[in-house]
Write a structure and sequence with these properties.
Blueprint (H helix, E strand, L loop, with lengths): L5 H7 L5 H12 L6 E7 L3 E8 L2 E8 L6 H8 L11 H21 L7 E5 L2 E5 L8 E2 L8 H17 L2 E2 L8 E4 L2 E4 L6 E2 L5 H18 L6 H9 L4
Antiparallel strand pairs: 1-2, 2-3, 3-5, 4-5, 6-8, 7-10, 8-9
Helix pairs in contact: 3-4, 6-7
């Protein structure tokens, strides 16, 4: 690939603020990807794009610096013993991005299917794309053929995280991909250690949301029994 100039980059990526453009340019210059291809999703907290790297597609997640969810971000991260932050918007967003990178690594080490994080800088996270020619569908958009097996594998992943000392804390049909009939967890910036005094509340909420979704798909589920079994497992 011919080396991209700063002028060409600005022309192609003029939808972002100058700071984000500089961060994207830095990551491109370091060889982490060759340029953005197309949007995957646009949200209040972040915008997600495909990008090209060595002939393959990867994912670039760009956290908004002026996010409407800043207070929510701070409420999660202030109780994470791994971070000590003052309530400064930009530093919180940077920590939120770094937190997702670190959490993805932790989840993968625990045996949970997740995208492989590749790099991060400031408010930009680069990671593997789950899918072959396009991003895999979210669970909300593609119901698994074997719903019971898929559900059991989700609970098994939650169990692995909890055993490793963490709770996803934002688990739902929106944050699980269905790839080849296997659940792949995404959106790990909320994931928090079980040392967090809110962790049990987050665990119960995760399980209730997932159980409610599969109950609507006609599965018979005892969510209280599942929550109890998770909390009673040795860590």
């Amino acid at each position: 690939m011919s080396k991209i100039t700063r002028e060409k980059f600005k022309t192609k990526h003029n939808v972002f603020d100058d700071f984000t453009n500089r961060t994207l340019y830095k990551l491109i210059s370091q060889g982490h990807f060759e340029g953005l291809v197309s949007p995957v999703s646009i949200g209040k907290e972040s915008n997600i794009f495909t990008a090209r790297k060595d002939g393959k597609l990867i994912i670039v997640k760009i956290y908004r610096l002026e996010t409407a969810d800043f207070n929510k971000m701070y409420s999660y991260i202030r109780d994470d013993p791994r971070y000590k932050l003052s309530k400064q918007k930009r530093k919180t967003v940077f920590a939120w991005c770094q937190r997702e990178y670190r959490n993805l690594m932790i989840a993968r080490e625990a045996g949970v299917r997740t995208p492989l994080p590749l790099a991060f800088a400031n408010n930009v996270l680069v990671m593997e794309m789950i899918g072959k020619d396009e991003p895999a569908s979210k669970l909300k958009d593609e119901i698994p053929k074997n719903k019971r097996k898929f559900f059991n594998e989700i609970i098994d992943s939650v169990r692995k995280l909890y055993k490793a000392g963490f709770v996803h804390a934002d688990l739902s049909q929106f944050n699980i991909l269905n790839y080849n009939e296997k659940p792949v967890f995404i959106d790990f910036s909320h994931m928090t250690p079980t040392k967090n005094h809110n962790s049990e509340e987050y665990l119960e909420r995760d399980i209730k949301v997932i159980c409610n979704y599969f109950t609507r798909l006609k599965l018979k589920i005892d969510k209280d029994k599942i929550i109890k079994s998770l909390k009673n497992q040795p860590q």
